[in-house]
Amino acid sequence: MNESSLLQRFSERINELKKLPKIQENRSIPELLEEKGFSRRDFMKWASAMTAVLSLPATFAPTVAEAAEVADRLPIVWLHMAECTGCSESLLRSSTPTIDSLIFDYISLEYHETIMAASGWQAEHNLEHAIEKYKGRYILMVEGGIPTGLNGDFLTIGPHAQTGLASAKKAADDAAAIFAIGTCSAFGGIQAAAPNPTGAVPMSKVTNKPVINVPGCPPSEKNIVGTLLHFILYGTLPALDAFNRPKWAYGLRIHDLCERRGRFDAGEFVEQFGDAGAMEGYCLYKVGCKGPYTFNNCSRERFNDHTSWPVQAGHGCIGCSEPDFWDTMGPYEEPLADRLYQTVFGGMGADATADKIGMGVLTAVGIGIAAHAAISAIKNPKE
User: Fold this and answer.
1) CB of 171 closer than 8 Å to CB of 79
2) In terms of C-beta density within 10 A (0-12 exposed, 13-18 middle, 19 or more buried), how is residue 376 classed?
3) What is the bridge-based pairing of β-strands 76-80 and 200-201?
4) Lateral strand order in the sheet of 111-112
């Protein structure tokens, strides 16, 4: 589809949403942002950044801004299952509220246990009311794995003693779209790590409807908001990878856009934390970085309003946006030696699609950069 056709499609979609009633008739997103001190210029800068995140042409920024302004037509029901609330914190917790967090704070008020004032009977009533009132229209966002052990009794909450499993199924039935926010909801996360005593499973295992996975522990706020904006613009699911992750966010490996990639290619590795190589910003592969096996855009989008991310801070990626990372990516501070010579040809994991230079063909024949990494991994760092 060419740019003009795509722009027309977006405009038609936005015009359809404008016909829907706002959740709060007496307030709009532009008014909220202005009240919080964000100028129109600030908002357009944010829209331009989101346009880039979604891999759209820069000329689409005004359309993305318009899509954000009609986000209050699509109510959100945000469920907390077995989790730590880290995904909500990633989006909402900030000493200086961002446009991302304000938009979500504003439009998520139908039901979000972290930010709503209601509790107990009133909270359950709000959830039931939202599901009934916005049936077939609301977006369901689920944070946390779904416990299925003992028929879901491990997550029994509220005055009606409803299980998390029952709540998730009920909310999924009438949702217009379902987003699994964070690795726990997308893949089970740490709750599903062996021996998985609660029988935690991803959201996709408890519903027959399509689920868009937005993994990460936690995912960046840009990936959460971007997934919402994509649905607003297109009105359909984005292009997904094999694990139902949006390709615009999870199409490249951490390794591909890492600021330390040049050090990897040059064979310059940190041998142990705190050594001279660490001070010089050398590659963290040999102290356990899982960037070559992990698909995410952390190295581009970063966290805390684009301030930093783990590798920049000096610790390797732990592969938290990959399925079963808690079991398959450890030890976190050692290379995955069992994958080094197996992944490209018949091996397991995301590295099967890795570039064939460095970690691919060269590892198979035992020469070049990856061979250096393999030998050095078992060599005394002081030799």
Assistant:
1) yes
2) middle
3) unpaired
4) 111-112, 76-80, 139-143, 177-181, 212-214
Residue 271 and residue 260: Cα distance in Å, rounded? 15
What are the φ and ψ backbone dihedral angles of 342, each rounded to 5 degrees? Answer: -120, -25
Cα separation, 270 vs 276, in Å, equals: 8
Tracing tokens 């740490």 back to the chain, one arrives at 190
Name residues whose C-beta falls within 8 Å of residue 297's C-beta, 6 or more positions apart in sequence.
53, 220, 222, 223, 249, 250, 252, 257
CA 122 to chain centroid: 30
Confidence of residue 116 (pLDDT cuts 50, 70, 90): confident
Quickly state the pLDDT bin for 282 (edges 50, 70, 90).
very high
Q: In terms of DSSP H, where are the helices of 93-163? A: 99-107, 120-133
Of the chain, the percentage scoring pLDDT greater than 70 comes to: 85
| CA-based nearest residue to 238, from 214, 255, 219 | 214
pTM of the model: 0.83
Which amino acid is located at 156 in the chain?
T
CA distance 54 to 180: 18
How far, in Å, CA of 43 to CA of 195, rounded? Answer: 47
Q: Which of 49, 65, 70, 56 is nearest to 6 (CA)?
A: 56
Task: Tell me the range of 51-65, 84-98, 357-371 where mean pLDDT is highest.
Answer: 51-65
The number of beta carbons lying within 10 Å of the beta carbon of residue 65 is 19
Distance, C-alpha 163 to centroid of its chain: 25
